[in-house]
């Protein structure tokens, strides 16, 4: 299996089908970013992915992530097949979000479905093989090939599942040391794409304050908290969010300083880093920050 390639740097953001989101996607494409990783929470539905692909020409999209508890496998497979038929290679399926008592088993079952979801995707008359078997109308399995799907993996068991069943892993809120460990588990032939928080602000106090607002949310989520503990952070760190923790998990400063920080992931074994720009305010997409960072990253 050839691992997918998205260049060294892309964008993590939440987009919808609104005119403002479609414009932001076109701006990212015009700036030269090769890929947008679509945050799962803000995504209103699978149709948005198709809308974004149709609104742009070359930029690639990865669902980062689609919750397997929310989106049925047959719907994801149908969306992938429709985009692949029109514009091959523009959509990679990123999965995660399994909850309940057996999350790993739930993901494995979901991947089993994506290995071959029954559907009617053959042209009229069926394939040559179907016709030779005298079954021109027999439905063929329709799924998402392993080389076009990824897992939002954090822990070692999830990373191993990503290596066994997908093209690679897409972790978020991790250090460069974690990246090196993840690469060792995945092996060299799997994609390792890291999403990293970015604050385009040279003032240390203001930058760290913006980062802390975001980090305080994620430290309260069990999955992220568990992985942060695996990386050596403590409950005291969660309570105070000290400078050393903020600086390890959020790149801030001038565009060149941010680029230097993000290159640590590439040096540790990541193939790609998706910048998750945070500004401390809700509202429009951070297109000005994408523009400021582009010369340093692309």
From TrEMBL:
Q: Extract the Pfam families matched here.
A: Bac_luciferase (PF00296)
The protein's superkingdom reads Bacteria
For this protein, the record's InterPro entries field holds:
Lucif-like_OxRdatse_MSMEG_4141, Luciferase-like_dom, Luciferase-like_sf
Query: Where does the Luciferase-like domain start and stop, copy by copy?
Result: 20-271
Q: Where is this region: Disordered?
A: 115-142
* The name this protein goes by in its record: TIGR03620 family F420-dependent LLM class oxidoreductase
